[in-house]
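Hey, resending since the last one bounced:
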Amino acid sequence: MKAKKIKEGIYWVGAIDWNLRNFHGYLTQRGTTYNAYLIIDEKITLIDTVKSNLKDEMLKRISDIIDPSKIDYIVSNHVEMDHSGAIPDIMGLAPDATIITCPNGEKGLKAHHFLGYKYKVVETGEKINIGKRNLEFVLTPMVHWPDNMICYVPEEKLLFSNDSFGQHLASSARFDDEYPLDIIMLEARKYYANIVLPYSKPVQKEIEAAKTLDIEIIAPSHGIIWRKYVKEIFSEYIKWASSVTEKKAIIIYDTMWHSTEKMAFAIQEVFEDKGYIAPVISLQHNHMSDIMTEIITAEYICVGSPTLNKNILPTVAAFLTYLQGLAPSNRKAIAFGSYGWGDKSIPKITEYFENSGFEIIDTFKVKFIPTEEYLKNMQETLNEKIK
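The structure tokens again:
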């Protein structure tokens, strides 16, 4: 398990989690990496660690370069256990090392690991010299925890960006010019949609801070390192954080006897006639984290469910709960569904929409099975409201 050189004296020493398929409730079909970075200078510095179960992999990579006991500094950009989980193991080997973190980072590390390490607490704009290089820090609270910060090495034009610009992607390739760019971008979009999206306003502040830095390499905490397509991923982050949408409508539904499904496809026809990209997505066959990856660029979110026991189907309720938590902004919404003796699904769906801050364009409901006449009338009504 060899370290990978990023620049002279700077190495990737993280771990690859080939088998991870679920991370905090979203599917990670391509696994992930936990990225840690080693800087060899007068003060040997480790940027973050890895999930505790993969600590041996990280330690072997560090040992490929130096004796881990010689580490002077550990920069903890984020307390979450996939980044800080192996700090106790490093401190056990290098007990005189100092952990560099922000005020909330110190509190979080003490709460997670219960040990009295030596800390150096930093604020935005603070610099620490490690020899030929300096470490500059920018606190980025709520991207996506209160303790988040990023670390910049001006002499190398290298940004250790923490969770920003990352992807859940396991690969032997380390750089963006060594792996298909379309897959990296897809996984970066999925990561943003399912983890970072609720914190888009803090991300905008982070982007403004990053604009002041001369960046040639972005080294995130998960996935591929950016060195060729830095401008491209930066541009995408600006769009995602600003809720820029495409001419796209996502039609999401579950169905019992295909009545709600018929409505879904009728709605799709209207959007397609208007020139919209309009995928129809069944919650029986698609995971909500993959759906969110599509929603991040969608102008319209259409959700359908029949009534079940005075409520909506559990799959739809779970999706809407997940959607509400991720809170995409500036979206237009349409609710639809069939019912039997109790018309309850539409009010439930619209309640989720209202709590999410969506603009409700219209709602459509039908008793039992929609006739061709009903579907035609629904399409005519919708056609007038979609611009």
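The radius of gyration is 24 Å.

Sorry for the duplicate.
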